[in-house]
Amino acid sequence: MRFTIAIALVAASASLAVADGKPVSLSATDVKDRLAVVSSDVEQCYLDAKATGKLELTLSIDKRGELYDVAVATPDLSSKRAKKVAACIEKAVAGLAFAEAKTSTTATVPFYFQRTVAPGAGPQYSCYSASGCK
Asked: 3-state DSSP call for residue 22?
């Protein structure tokens, strides 16, 4: 079973004027680069729920670069599974720190999971018997 994942970022402020060494807000690339450290953990949280569909992660980052809010939207999951996935993701991203900026940044990161049927994928049945297999 293979999963296809696409990541897109939307940063709240598009203006990136740099003065005093700090950007006005974080760019999509800044967020993407820092999130790359934990993206496999985030993906695993969703895949552990044995689900396909969309996961939307909204990160609120203050001007010091600290993550102060994480919102997880999983519209394709039941509320029980969604809570489990959200708790797992919040734990995975808890220690993230971003670069400082002049203002806070809100970034929404969608992850798409699609189940595909790959040739030769799945269990490979075999037999071992001294008298042969039937």
From this structure: strand
What are the residue boundaries of the structural domains of the chain, listed by start?
A: 2-116
CA distance 26 to 13: 8
**Per-residue pLDDT for the chain (134 aa), expressed as one digit of tens each?**
333 333 334 433 434 444 467 878 888 888 888 888 888 888 888 887 776 788 898 989 899 989 889 999 988 888 888 899 899 989 998 888 888 888 998 989 888 887 666 776 666 666 777 777 76
Amino acid at 18: V
Q: What is the pTM of this model?
A: 0.67
User: Residue 109 carries which DSSP code?
Assistant: E
Give the span between the Cα atoms of 23 and 77, in whole angstroms: 37
One-character DSSP codes across 48-90: TTT--EEEEEEEEE-TTSBEEEEEEE-TTS-HHHHHHHHHHHH
